[in-house]
Amino acid sequence: MIDPSQVLRVPLVWLLLLLRPVHAQADCQVFADQAQLEDARQSWSQTLEALPLEQRLRWIAGLHAPDEKARKEATRQKDCLVRALAKAMSVKSPLRTISSYRDHAQQRAIWERKYAFRGRAFGRITTATRKDCSDLQGDGRMAWDPLRATHRACWKRLSGEQREREILQTSAPPGLSRHHWGTDFDLFDPTLSNPPWRAGGRLAGVYRWMRTNAWRYGFFQTYAGKSAGQELGYTEERWHWSYYPVAGALQSDLANHANEFQALLRKQLSDNGHYDLVLKHWRDFAFGVESPAGDSTSM
User: Fold this and answer.
1) Which of 2, 40, 214, 230 has the greatest number of CB atoms lying within 10 Å of its CB?
2) Which domains, ranges and CATH numbers included, belong to the chain?
3) What are the DSSP calls for 89-157, one per residue?
4) Contact between 276 and 159 (Cβ < 8 Å)
5) What DSSP string describes 152-178?
6) What is the C-alpha radius of gyration for the chain, rounded to an integer number of angstroms?
7) Backbone angles phi, psi at 158, to 5 degrees
8) What are the tens digits of pLDDT across the range 240-291?
9) Bridge partners (DSSP) listed for residue 240
């Protein structure tokens, strides 16, 4: 039996800790405005400067594991964002993270499978290729399907650079995927396609909330209008969100050391001729991204 007189001797701070809600978000950073986001990015830029340049470049290229502190912060903030969304939208079904960190070798395996035209359907058939390839006339499918004979016949006739253009519609090459950084996440929809996020889709309300509020937790939609509107760039990805304080610092570091990074990229991707277009235009893909300021007019 507990002696009431002993309970009174328990320090107040201990009682407060015991009574604290299990799901408290004490470790969540909620940003008030653009200035706070920039301060966080600059702080991470200073942290990066303390690391050897080779390590930073290899981190960006997926050849070195992300800094553990950076990865943990990005993951923690992503979890905070998901909890806030679930609470605001009264979401009962699990909001899953579909994909997060991938290293160089994993990304290369994805690219090589598509280049060799194996496995499941992928990407998006470009208008130019659909027009030029008679085998695709009347085929209403949006994605390439290696299991279909007409698709295989068309793919076989494509040049190497044409194949690269098709893959680059929806896939980053190894060395240029932001999933190497430990800051980027594919969220909620396992199909990794835009229709569920558009008006009338099951994630349309979630997307509206994300566009308005994700920046408060440091996140922005990586590929939206800017990248999709370029001649060379990824199509819009409403499921892909990036943690700006760390990713923005890495992006700035990449811009400041673009020549050194290009040398590293050439060393990694010049072995089989499957990345010729990538090596010519890698800057379009590395820098053709959105910025947090573009995600919410309320900032």
Assistant:
1) 214
2) 28-89+96-103+177-294 (3.30.1380)
3) HT--S---EEE----HHHHHHHHHHHHTT-SS-BS---HHHHHH-GGGTT---SSB-TTSHHHHHHHHH
4) no
5) HHHHHHS-HHHHHHHHTTT-PPTTS-G
6) 22
7) -75, 145
8) 999 999 999 999 999 999 999 999 999 999 999 999 999 999 999 999 888 7
9) 186
